[in-house]
Amino acid sequence: MKYGEKEIREFDINAEENFWPNEHEKNYTINIELPEFMCMCPRSGYPDFATLKLAYQPDRTVIELKALKLYINSFIHRYISHENVANEIYDTLHSKLQPKSMKLIADFNPRGNVHTVIEIDSEKC
Known about the structure:
Elements: H1 3-10, E1 19-21, E2 30-40, E3 47-57, E4 61-63, H2 65-73, H3 82-97, E5 101-108, E6 117-121
Antiparallel strand pairs: 1-4, 2-3, 3-5, 5-6
């Protein structure tokens, strides 16, 4: 196993070192685009690809970017639906960060003439 595969397989999003204190009291938004998301279709086993867009206003905590990359890459061998991907990522990050606001857009590449975009926004929940 290559070192990157090992790091992804052993990654634990719950580790304390993945989150840092937010040193700023003012309101600001962190926008992150993750254009190489991959998981596996739970029915067919075919790969699903997506661009994830995360925007959040931190309160007391921010996520370390390498930790976010490893967390997102940890889905690469998981059989999981588009809806479950978006909801699991949103719920995990929202519970860990407890941001002032957060929005996640999961824009999946078309497959079989179907294009799925899932949006979860704390302002609309």
